[in-house]
Design goal:
mainly alpha, MetI-like fold, 70% helix, flat
Amino acid sequence: MKTATAAKPITLPTANRLDHACKKFWRSRYLLLMLLPALIWYIVFMYAPMYGAQIAFRDFSPVLGITGSKWVGFKYFTQFFKSEYFGRLIKNTLGISLYSIIVGFPIPIILALLINEVRGKFFKRSVQTVVYLPHFISAVVVVSILSALLSPSSGLINQLITAFGGTPIHFMAEPKYFKTIYVLSDIWQSAGYGSIVYMAALTGIDPSLYEAATVDGASKWDKLIHITLPGLLPTIIIMLILRMGSIFSVGYEKIMLMYNPATYETADVISTYVYRRAFESGDYSFSAAVGLFNSVINFTIIMLFNKFSKKISEVSLW
């Protein structure tokens, strides 16, 4: 008796495969043309600057240029690790990032769930507009608002404290208040805009699931627990992975506008330290080494969290 053998896949000759690829490319030419500006942007602003990363391994001099500067290996990495500021920078950067994740990450999710429950279209759009607007306010304006609200002499917060018999507090000069002020103001500024992703995910949940749950007598809380949150879970995991991938990347713009020598103890982070060493002290190689170290750590963390997420939930970036 003859046994059945598996059919071998048909492989096209190289010339035919090339012709097929060219035809496929031509059919998608308009889509690829739309992709071209984003591709150019990434090449110019993301990949091309990688050439300058070798400054971290050279004693860089603007006169000699990158390739003309002396190769010093891991000299500046070692200097950073042995620096008296190393522990403080890592502690502050991690502290602010984890504070932002623990307190701020759930807020856009909750906000999206609340907005989704609003039935009046006009009111819903009005609420969305109001909560999105802070995202478009510059960091300079936000810090100016904070300074006005928290002013020890004329600030609204200190006026309330005084009215209740307390003494005015100079919040912006107290190290212990810096992280809280930074994180809460950041939540106010970004929560509304961040909820857009979750609002979009909510629209992708099948309405028939809610209808079936209503027929079965499920309450709104039951629908939230058993339909809405499971439907949002993949998006939440992806956003959390991305957030963990930037855990060592606390933006320097707002912090530099907020902090002062009195709050360096809790406010100085890796990005602000890099900025000061590069543009105030002119230590370009040292700053590049610290920045490269920061990027490598962020890349490692996002790889680990992506692998961990894929293992336990089968949801990952790749």
